[in-house]
Amino acid sequence: MELAENKSKGNPTAEMQIRSVGVVRSPLKEPSLVAESGDLECRVRVRGAREDQGVISELVIDSDIDGILDGIEGFSHLLVLYWAHLVASEGRSIIKAHPMGRKELPLVGIFATCSPARPNNICATTVRLLQRKENVLKVEGLDALDGSPILDIKPYNPGYYATGDVKVADWMERIHREFAEGLITGGDSEETR
Description:
The protein has a single domain, classed as Elongation Factor Tu (Ef-tu), domain 3, CATH 2.40.30. Helices cover 10% and strands 32% of the residues. By secondary structure, the chain is mainly β.
């Protein structure tokens, strides 16, 4: 990674190269929310949170990097980083949005949301590893859409990722509570976040 001078602000910025290491094969085909008119908008009836948690997907890793998955079977859960490939260029310039496109929720900065409509539409989801067969991982709970490029996979280590005393915004607590109680069927997932 090389540092380049950001001409507009005089700050050094990193020039980066990222390559896909594979692709997601999923029954999830359409984004639930899209960037529209400078905000998020619900486009389709979205899945319930409980349904998303049970989605079975495949992570198909490029065969030219054979061996990269060796040892992964020793972990029950993985952290999958992927590119939200269906976010239009307009979505990459959104600065503020109503979470899940819900106008009754506060307008917040995009970094306060999990939306993939952001300057770099990189998403992360923790999934359960069900099976490995050569270069294909079968996982449960991935919210990525079919065809999403996989950027990285890491073993989930609760000692590394877990933290105590976590504070969550009131509006996010509300969303989680509504999902848990089955009051809403909206999805805060992949191209929907």
